[in-house]
Every structure is written in C-alpha cells, then in structure tokens.
Amino acid sequence: MAGVTHLIPDRTEEKSILKAMKENSTKITIECNNEMDMYYFPAKKISVSEYQKVTRKNLKKIIMVGETGSGKSTLINAFVNYAAGIEIEDPLRFKLVNHEIELQTREISGYLIEDTLFEYPIMIWDTPGFKFANGRKIDEKIEQQIQKLLSVEDEFHAICFVIKADVNRLTDVQNLIIDNVKRLFGREAEKNMYTLTTFGYGDRPEVLRTLMRSNFPFDENRWFTFNNRHLFKTESQRWFGSKIYWDITINSIIQFHNTLAHQLPFGITRETRKANVFGYMKVESDEDYYADYVEELSSPENK
Ligand SMILES: Nc1nc2c(ncn2[C@@H]2O[C@H](COP(=O)(O)OP(=O)(O)OP(=O)(O)O)[C@@H](O)[C@H]2O)c(=O)[nH]1
Ligand SMILES: [Mg+2]
Asked: Residues in domain AIG1-type G (predicted)?
C-alpha cells in the first residue's frame, strides 16, 4: 500500500459539495430513522445494454470484480460517501448501490460520479460476484455482460479485484475470476489490476501472501485495504473502534484515488475485443449485427 499520509481536504470545500449533493438527491424515506437520513447518491445507473461510451476530461474508468459477498457494492458506497464529503459523525449517508432493494448485485451497472471531492470524474462499474451455487449459467451471463461492455468501452484505468482480507487459500471461484479477468481484458491489463482488500483490520492481511502465490498479477503499489463495517452504522450502533475502521477506509480511498490520478489506461486490443465479441455472439439473437461488428474490427483501419 502506498504511504499513509492523510490528505483530508479542506472542510469548507467538503461542506459546499455535501450541500450541493444533498440538494440534488432524493431521500430514501423508508431507510431514514431519528438518527440518520439516507439519500440516493445523484449518479445515474447505466446498464451495459444501454451504455454508450462516456467522454469527460480526465475520466477514470474502473471496474470492480470479485466473489459474491466480498464487499464490492459496499465499497462503491464508501467511495461515494467520501466523494460527497461525509464524515462518520454526520447524521446522513448516501447510497449508490442499494442493498435493501437488491441484496446481491444481479447485473453489471455503471455509475458516472462527477462534481465531487474526487479531482476527476469516475465511471465505475459494479459487477455481480461469480457464483457456483447458482449454476454455471449465471456466471456465463456475467461474462457475456463484461464482453458486451468491452465491445463498447476500449480502455480502462483500473480493474479492482475485491477480496476479503482473511482469505488464506483461494477458492475455485476466486481462481476462476482471476482467469476470466485475465482472459477477458487481455495481457495488457496486468499493470492496471488493483487489489482492494475488505473486512481488513488495517494491518498486512493474510490474503496478500495467498495472492502472491497465485496466478494474480499482485503488485504491492496497487493494493489498498478497507473495512466498511461501520459505513451505515448510526451513532448508537457505533463503538469506540468504529472510528478506527472508518479512518482506515478513508485513508485507503484517498491513497487509491491519488494513485489512480497518475494511472494510465490500458487499451483493449483488437484481438481481445474480437474474442469477446465472438464470446457473447454465441448467445445473442441479433447475430448479423455482431458479425458486421467483427468485420468492422477486422478492417484495415482498425489494425
Ligand atoms: N464487516 C464488514 N462487512 C462488510 C465489509 N464490506 C461489506 N460488508 C458486508 O458484507 C455483505 C456483502 O457486501 P456486498 O457489498 O453486497 O458484497 P458484493 O461483493 O457486492 O456481493 P455481490 O453483489 O453478491 O457480488 C454486506 O452485508 C456488507 O454490509 C467490510 O469491509 N467489513
Ligand atoms: Mg454487489
């Protein structure tokens, strides 16, 4: 993990961003109580099927992958609360991904996060965790959605592999995710793969040794640790240790985004795109369209 300097921004700027965010947000009335108000974070949810490439100056494109329950959606919620300027004592929180409505992420969704404390806009993609229990079919559907996304989006800054801190042996599912990510994004992606450990205590987690022995291109400089246990806890639900976990997360969010600020994107190569288009073409009914697309990719101008 990169250094641990605190770069907490100026509170005045934070408060004005927070005020603007609140004004643009809808309250989630059923989730409010006398200690805390809950708001939908003002960012549009975009599905892969309706996605058209977004262009913004300095836009950073991130995708979260990892086993079900590893904490991907919660981590995205932590990012947006920080981005809105929320501190642990504040009596309100934002939700981008709403667990109460959707306990498990069912499909890949993108969110454009802009005009926040982050110094650049972010397009972040949340993916459902690959599962064996629900059968192979569901995993194939996720894979096809990623392939479809990669046919529209040709570069990414970070592929974030989210994994619990205490994993001491990779499961078949985790190995499968690593293999799939490497295959779908291609070799060029290896320098843009980040390890985001969740459920951490702030120390060097066991999972790092596990990852170093695995097929995953682990890089110490692209590792950040989080614990989001207390993200949505109200004052009476928190204990004195909550602030420590909160600070671990805030510190890592800042370090992660500082690293990302200097991260060059990797491009999806023509070969990888072609393989991906063939991948999801297998199940698409509109095969002619995709055949045309593959032809277009093969044309000399695209070489
Ligand atoms: N203690 C603790 N709990 C966490 C942490 N991160 C997430 N959780 C909890 O773990 C559960 C699963 O988190 P999610 O964010 O839904 O996991 P996910 O990876 O998005 O799961 P899928 O959408 O099924 O792929 C939720 O109940 C979270 O509140 C963490 O860092 N510490
Ligand atoms: Mg999720």
From this structure: 61-213
Residues of the chain with pLDDT under 70: 1-13, 98-104, 130-139, 278-303
**Which residue's alpha carbon is nearest to atom 7 within ligand 1?**
71
DSSP for 238-254 reads: --TTHHHHHHHHHHHHH
Nearest ligand 1 atom to alpha carbon 231: 29
Ligand 1 atom closest to the Cα of residue 128 is 25
Q: Which of 31, 67, 73, 139 to mutate for ligand 1's pocket (most ligand atoms within 8 Å of CB)?
A: 73
* Ligand 1 contacts CB of residue 255 (under 6 A): no
Name the residue among 111, 71, 87 with its Cα closest to residue 196: 71
CB atoms within 10 A of CB 69: 13
The sign of the dihedral angle between the CA atoms of 177, 154, 40, 142 is negative
Answer whether 130 contacts ligand 1 (Cβ < 6 A): no
pTM of the model: 0.88
How is residue 1 annotated by DSSP? -
List helix spans (H) across 54-171: 72-84, 136-152
Q: Which of 76, 89, 75, 100 is nearest to 18 (CA)?
A: 89
At 259-279, the pLDDT tens digits run 999 999 999 888 888 777 766
User: With contact defined as beta carbons under 8 Å apart, do 121 and 112 qualify?
Assistant: yes
State residue 161's pLDDT score. Answer: 96
Q: How many CB atoms lie within 10 A of CB 192?
A: 24
pLDDT digits over 16-61, tens only?
A: 888 888 888 999 999 999 999 999 999 988 989 889 989 999 999 9
Q: 169: CA distance to ligand 1 center in Å? A: 19
CB 92 within 8 A of CB 37: yes
- Tokens 């949340």 — which residue? 126
CA 61/CA 219 separation, integer angstroms: 19
Pairing relation of β-strands 37-40 and 92-95? parallel
